[in-house]
Fold Fic/DOC family protein.
Amino acid sequence: MSEQKDLIIYQLESGALELKADFSTETVWASQKDISLIYGKDQSVISRHIRNIFKDGEVDEKSNMQKMHIANSDKPVVYYSLDIVLAVGYRVSSSKAIMFRKWATQILKQHITQGYTINQVRVEKDPNFLVEVMSRIQNLAQKQINNDDILELIKTFSYTWFSLQSYDEQKFPKTDTTSDIDVSIKDLYQDLQQLKADLINKKEASPLFAQEKSKGNLESIVNNVFQNVFGQELYPSVEEKSAHLLYFVIKNHPFNDGNKRSGAFAFIWLLQKFNYSHKITPETLATLTILIAESQPNDKDKMIGMILLLLAGNRNAI
């Protein structure tokens, strides 16, 4: 297996197959033709399995399909997410399906764990890495960036939205384990809408605030953060889940307006949902939010690693 920009090479018996990777959402995209080559099945068989998967409601159709323009094709080609590719693999039940599932698990875990581990090692062994990050934050602070709305929002979090009494204390984890927590996307939607109403009442937001560009955008992000691969969580810890939720909401732009504020809201919301006693100052989170928004896609690992290190440092300081 080798990686090159947004392509991942999956080795078939007949040769190399290029698959489109999107590590910002931790998935791989494949066409029906690609899937038929992976599993060694006729494309009509793959098509039938996909129809049945959607019919059975096994995988959400809208958030797991997208059309892409490719060379030498007059029409856009439909591509399917890794969730669908794996679902088809379970149905074809072949040795090739088992091989692909193992490969998919390995490549995703490798990217996720190394994405953070590499940054952790760099911080410990390469002082210039931390200097680079701090320099970028300092440059942001010197810019004429209006982040009063974010600062005010985060201050509001501390005093209004996230009293521990707002949640059923019996649902809080007693350890760092997250598997017993039931995070409801409906609760997050409702709290965002209440926040929106309050901000509109204060004339600090428009009706476009937290309004999804397409229905299910936020749910797709939350599902991605909490997804499992073969019974194992991709993001096992509270810190990893919260860090990726913050990043994905800001960078994926699920809303017509207010993505940075909504991302900050969702970040604190999830941390408090897990009873995480954080000591992140409003200024720190505001700067971090803007830094993520201005970062390049290839800086994703740095951004996630920085959030994780920040959260780990705050927890150790408690």
User: Anything to note?
Assistant: The two ends are 42 Å apart (CA to CA). Residues 226 and 233 are 7 Å apart (CA to CA). The chain has two domains: 3-110, 127-317. The chain has twelve helices and eight strands.
